[in-house]
Amino acid sequence: TRPVIAWSKNTKGISVLDFDDTLATTKSLVRYTALDGTSGTLNAEQYASKYQDMLDKGYEFDFSEFNKVVKGKIAPLFQKALKLQKKFGSSSMFVLTARPMAAQQAIFDFLKANGLNIPLKNITGLGNSTAARSIWCKV
Predict the structure, then answer these.
(1) Is this prediction's pTM over 0.90?
(2) For every one of its 139 residues, what pLDDT tens digit does the chain have, with 9 covering 90 and above?
(3) Which of 40, 46, 123, 108 is nearest to 72 (CA)?
(4) CA distance 52 to 75
(5) What share of the chain is helix, strand, coil (3-state, %, to 5)?
(6) Helix or strand (DSSP H, E) at 2
(7) What is the Cα Rg of the chain in Å?
């Protein structure tokens, strides 16, 4: 027999938003060191696209600055997020970011300072930018 599924007459939904270049732009950088000792920095976009390849090549990463929101400014979708919050509330809004979990409080503080009150527990840092870690959020 098939299980009975109860459907609610009240539709519910969630909003899952990225942080970097979606809700905010920042000057936060990830520092890296290659096996040969050379070092450098990556911005959020570079980190998202190059992380896995660099990790596979043995690069080491320092996220101490990336755990902060350095010179943060609101990005284009921030205003849309504020409208969603006004219409539906913020309890079903989530931030999913490639930044490490250690950035959670800094992201929360930035959002709150700008009027977006997403609960702290709804901010998830994956700590990498691979599809394998983020596949769970696909709906």
Answers:
(1) no
(2) 667 767 667 767 789 999 998 999 999 999 999 999 999 999 888 888 898 899 999 999 998 998 999 999 999 899 999 999 999 899 999 999 888 899 999 999 999 999 999 999 999 988 765 544 443 443 3
(3) 108
(4) 26
(5) 35, 20, 45
(6) none
(7) 18
